[in-house]
Amino acid sequence: MSQYAHPEVLVDTPWLLAHLNDPQVRVVAVDMSPDPYQKAHIPGAIFWNIFTDLLKPNLSVNLDPIAMAKLLSRSGISPETTVVAYGGYPGTGAWIFWLLKLFGHDNVSVLNGGYQKWVAEGRPLTAELASFAPTQYQANSPDMTLRARQTEVQAALGQPNCVVLDVRTPEEYQGDVFMMKPPAGDERGGHIPGAIHLEHTLTLNDDGTFKSADELHALFNRQGVTADKVVFPYCAIGGRSACTWFVLTYLLGYPDVRNYDGSWNEWSRLPHAPIDR
């Protein structure tokens, strides 16, 4: 991992196994339903529900620092705690990395390979629910330099020094598949005009670990996503694009990447926002 710009933000499965009982490490399981967690999870992991803990009812990211402070407090997390997150889809840990950095929590790492690799290696699992003494966490206001607003993305269209990067599936990009099935309300299908398409899972190996720095540089350079440009990744609700933000910013060292967390959930519902199919 030393070839990455910031290899220290990744931990591997042996490291986590050795730190399962470390009081300064908190493992967080993140998913859309508690069912997978209740069946089997990494020992000592607590559960965060994507819909009720991290998103608002309209599926936008909850940017309220009070809500984040309550979540971290009830999870027994202090500013000194190292958070290691994993979840039910590839890149979940990197999304939580972005989210906690957004609120000023510096001690967060990504489990390289996530739950997929942990299980494949036959490492311990449990159904026992974890709980910890609550803390009194004070979250910062969101760091707006880590995210992009819809108006910024729209202003970047056609600018040679900017890249709008769609990291959804090809079917979503083409407008054949919607985030909500069937489309909910006024959601439209397609992609942001001029957006480069590069599915976020292409940054991962088959075992869920991140590809090497050389492979990642080649992957993005082939698409014209280079470090001299401002990059605005987006997906459906900002999770997969946060994973791409993590790869570009922390693994490759790109200086100016801003996650458009409003993503297609916001863009597709704005009547004035242009769309291509």
List the helices and strands and how they pair.
Elements: E1 10-11, H1 13-18, E2 25-31, H2 35-39, E3 46-49, H3 50-54, H4 65-74, E4 82-87, H5 92-102, E5 108-111, H6 114-120, H7 150-156, E6 162-166, H8 170-173, E7 196-197, H9 213-222, E8 230-234, H10 239-251, H11 263-267
Parallel strand pairs: 1-5, 2-3, 2-4, 4-5, 6-7, 6-8
How is this structure best described in words?
This protein has 277 residues and is an alpha/beta fold. The chain has two domains: 136 residues, Oxidized Rhodanese, domain 1 (3-Layer(aba) Sandwich); 121 residues, 3-Layer(aba) Sandwich (Oxidized Rhodanese, domain 1). The protein has eleven helices and eight strands. The strands form two sheets. The protein has a five-stranded parallel sheet with strand order 1-5-4-2-3. Strands 7-6-8 form a three-stranded parallel sheet.
